[in-house]
Design brief:
By secondary structure, the protein is an all-alpha fold. The protein has 5 helices and no strands. Helix 1 packs antiparallel against helix 2, helix 2 packs across helix 3 and helix 3 runs antiparallel to helix 4. It is elongated.
């Protein structure tokens, strides 16, 4: 088992660092969008699209990070839903329904043609999803990255 951990350690740490940077970038764009005082429709749309796109990339990176972590312990999970379910079983995710909604929102972004729906997804990212992702990354840091298993 230790051989598997050693084999994936560097890849997991690098993936974690990349996901954390993506989260910081997303939070920076959200913060910048909230500080605009006289935003016009174009500015609003640019920030919204940036938030949604950064979320898409982050969500994709996140489930792949989880997949690597679980693979290092012998579990072969190759879908976001399976990875989130396992993270829930591990106690890293508190509310699996929120994560299922996050995945549905992520999948919907490629097929949203309605401004209201796109805005609704952006608001969920800002008000709910960022906090959930941040909590998961903190759990991964505590239980995987900083764990005695790795050191």
């Amino acid at each position: 088992m230790d051989d598997l951990f050693d084999k994936y350690k560097e890849s997991i740490v690098l993936s974690y660092q990349y996901a954390f940077r993506l989260l910081l970038h997303l939070k920076n764009v959200i913060s910048a969008s909230q500080q605009i005082t006289n935003e016009d429709e174009l500015m609003k749309e640019v920030y919204r699209d940036s938030i949604v796109k950064k979320y898409e990339i982050l969500e994709d990176q996140l489930w792949k990070l989880l997949s690597k972590i679980f693979k290092s312990s012998g579990l072969e999970l190759n879908s976001p839903r399976a990875c989130y379910r396992q993270a829930f079983k591990e106690g890293w995710i508190e509310n699996i329904d929120v994560w299922n909604d996050m995945l549905s929102s992520r999948n919907a972004t490629a097929h949203v043609y309605n401004e209201e729906d796109y805005e609704r997804i952006k608001n969920k990212i800002v008000n709910e999803y960022v906090h959930q992702i941040e909590a998961l990354l903190q759990k991964i840091k505590e239980e995987v990255i900083d764990s005695d298993v790795w050191n």
